[in-house]
Design brief:
The chain has helices spanning 51-65, 75-83, and strands at 6-8, 13-18, 21-31, 34-42, 69-72. The chain is of the alpha+beta class and 101 residues long. A five-stranded mixed β-sheet has the order 1-2-3-4-5. The longest helix is centred in the middle third of the chain and has 15 residues, at 51-65.
């Protein structure tokens, strides 16, 4: 089970660690009440273990708790939102067409 997902605003990314190692991160840019996710990366050593899914779920849950909206420019984040419609409300309705949501 991966460690908790943590936000590192000084690096503009959410990170997840496993076995004391950085297993993956989701890069973002924040502007006002919007968080634009731009890139997600999982270390090859951790691929296929659900790290990316845990990372994005944790990042989106934290974004929701902070009352922020999401712009899923990153294909991985966008795909997650498509497969998990309970997160669709995080994407402003006026912007959903930009992401085929």
């Amino acid at each position: 089970m991966p460690a908790a997902v943590t936000d590192h605003p000084e690096h503009e990314r959410y990170e997840v660690h496993e076995d004391g190692m950085l297993a993956g991160y989701a890069q973002y840019r924040r502007s006002g009440s919007l968080v634009a996710f731009i890139h997600t990366e999982v270390d090859q050593a951790f691929e296929g273990k659900g790290i990316g899914t845990a990372l994005i779920k944790g990042a989106l849950d934290d974004t929701r708790a902070s009352g922020l909206a999401v712009l899923p420019f990153c294909a991985f984040v966008r795909g997650y939102v498509q497969r998990h419609p309970e997160y669709l409300d995080l994407v402003p309705e006026s912007r959903r067409h930009d992401f085929d949501l």
